[in-house]
Specification:
Layout: E1 5-7, H1 21-32, E2 37-40, H2 42-48, E3 57-60, H3 64-70, E4 74-77, E5 83-88, E6 91-97, H4 125-128, E7 139-142, E8 148-150, H5 154-159, E9 162-163, H6 169-175, H7 178-190, E10 193-194, H8 196-205, H9 214-225, H10 230-239, H11 243-246, H12 248-256, H13 258-276, H14 283-290, H15 292-304, H16 309-327, H17 332-347, H18 353-360, H19 365-377, H20 383-394, H21 397-404
Parallel strand pairs: 3-6, 9-10
Antiparallel strand pairs: 1-8, 2-3, 2-7, 4-5, 5-6, 7-8
The structure holds adenosine-5'-triphosphate (ATP) and magnesium ion.
Adenosine-5'-triphosphate binds at residues 41-42, 54-55, 57, 132-133, 137-138, 176, 178-179.
Length: 416
């Protein structure tokens, strides 16, 4: 048995004021009902680092049903992990019951490749610690006495700014390959180093990521690129060979044409800036960028076969999307936006007449325009179009109408 290091309330920097009110309510209600209740995971980690947590997760010895009985605004979700979601308006506080150990399991919880299939054996805090991924994610803030409980040496990893897997890294990556992406995401977000023992297996294991269901990989991809540290994340993913598993066509395109990487980095910088400014980001935009060069290359190939432009683009999109969606699926609503952005690129070359007017009134004009200007910034030959639409948007409504009027009179009205 491992001894826990208990850091008392005076010895760590977490105060209740930094904890979300709703999370506190849940913690107190569990505690007052006689259950153990802890803030865990990223919430504790981020507070210790002086960052604002993205969400507050709670761990307890109450079973999901017991949690549900305590909160009217509670729903149980998940098959593999049964979790309680306590709703406060739009905010959700996730409450997880301690999980028991599974590694020494004889009940077929792991499949032949070491993957976790089920993880629903309830346990104690002491057992729950070891199924968490990285040490820095395995700290528990105890609402009973405001201490932090550290079983794994997480505090020293936080001091040393290190991401280190709990247990044998290779085994734990095989159990759940998404942990490789999580290692990269946290390293980028926190500006931490991945410990040598935890990074080494990634180079060899990167390819097993392709076995993860496409819907989950899509969710993870969004987290990776919408963390506010997309550029760094992108570079780390490429470094570890993870990017080529997620976006094989993109990786191939970058290798063929290093200029394309310039564009992608511009897009990701732009995404990071938008997140810093609390502006909305649409996942379709980053995905549209990731697949742009492959789509373009396929379009050009088809155009060389004398196919009309729109048809060539549509076919190219099909060719590129179908293998990609098998890796990272995407809701239809998003792939539609992505297609709009791509189709509008050519149409933005119209600067007058009805065509230009219809581009401007298109629901995706703004996204397509931003995309165009990023292409321009990355050295593509579309500077004039970007300039035109930039100036156009600064005009008043009347002036805009005038600007779109066809520049030349029709030459002759005699022939139809
Ligand atoms: P953030 O919310 O900032 O993305 P987080 O560390 O809170 O980071 P979550 O995905 O919210 O991450 O998960 C909460 C906690 O659950 C983690 O800190 C970790 O302890 C545990 N956890 C989540 N995913 C896994 C996983 N795939 N394997 C093991 N433990 C995990
Ligand atoms: Mg979290």
């Amino acid at each position: 048995m491992t001894e826990a290091n208990i850091i008392s309330r005076g010895e760590h920097g977490i105060s209740r004021e930094q904890i979300d009110d709703n999370a506190l309510k849940v913690l107190y209600r569990l505690h007052n009902a006689g259950f153990q209740a802890y803030l865990v995971g990223g919430g504790v980690r981020d507070l210790l680092l002086g960052l604002e947590p993205k969400d507050f997760d709670i761990a307890t010895d109450a079973t999901p049903d017991e949690v549900r009985r305590l909160f009217r605004n509670c729903r149980l979700i998940g098959r593999r992990f049964r979790l309680a979601h306590v709703h406060f308006g739009r905010e959700i506080i996730e409450v997880a019951t301690f999980r028991g150990a599974h590694s020494s399991d004889k009940n077929g919880v792991l499949d032949d490749s070491g993957r976790i299939l089920r993880d629903n054996v309830y346990g104690t805090l002491e057992e729950d610690v070891w199924r968490r991924d990285f040490k820095v994610n395995a700290l528990y803030y105890n609402i009973a006495d405001f201490s932090v409980i550290d079983y794994t040496g997480a505090m020293s990893d936080i001091d040393q700014r290190t991401i280190r897997m709990i247990g044998d890294a290779e085994t734990r990556y095989r159990e759940d390959p998404v942990r490789m992406l999580r290692a990269v995401r946290f390293a980028a977000k926190l500006d931490f180093k991945i410990h040598k023992d935890s990074e080494q297996p990634i180079y060899q294991l990167a390819s097993i990521l392709s076995e993860i269901p496409a819907a989950r990989l899509f969710d993870e991809a969004i987290k990776l690129f919408h963390s506010g540290n997309a550029v760094k994340t992108f570079e780390l993913l490429r470094h570890y060979g993870l990017y080529e598993v997620l976006f094989p066509q993109t990786e191939a395109a970058i290798r063929e044409d290093p200029e394309y990487e310039v564009f992608l980095i511009k897009v990701l910088q732009n995404t990071d800036l938008r997140i810093m400014d609390a502006k909305p980001v649409n996942p379709a935009f980053v995905f549209a960028a990731m697949l742009w060069q492959p789509v373009l290359a396929n379009t050009q190939r088809l155009l060389a076969d004398t196919m009309p432009y729109n048809l060539a683009l549509q076919k190219a999109i099909d060719r590129v999307l179908s293998p990609q969606l098998r890796i990272t699926s995407m809701p239809k609503r998003l792939s539609m936006i992505m297609k709009d952005i791509w189709f509008l690129q050519e149409r933005l070359k119209n600067h007058s007449g009805k065509r230009a007017a219809s581009v401007f009134s298109h629901q995706r004009f703004r996204a397509a325009y931003d995309f165009l200007c990023l292409r321009s910034a990355a050295g593509e030959n579309v500077e004039k179009d970007c300039q035109f639409w930039t100036q156009f948007q600064e005009l008043g409504e009347k002036e805009q109408e005038k600007a779109l009027r066809p520049k030349r009179r029709p030459q002759s009205r005699t022939k139809k």
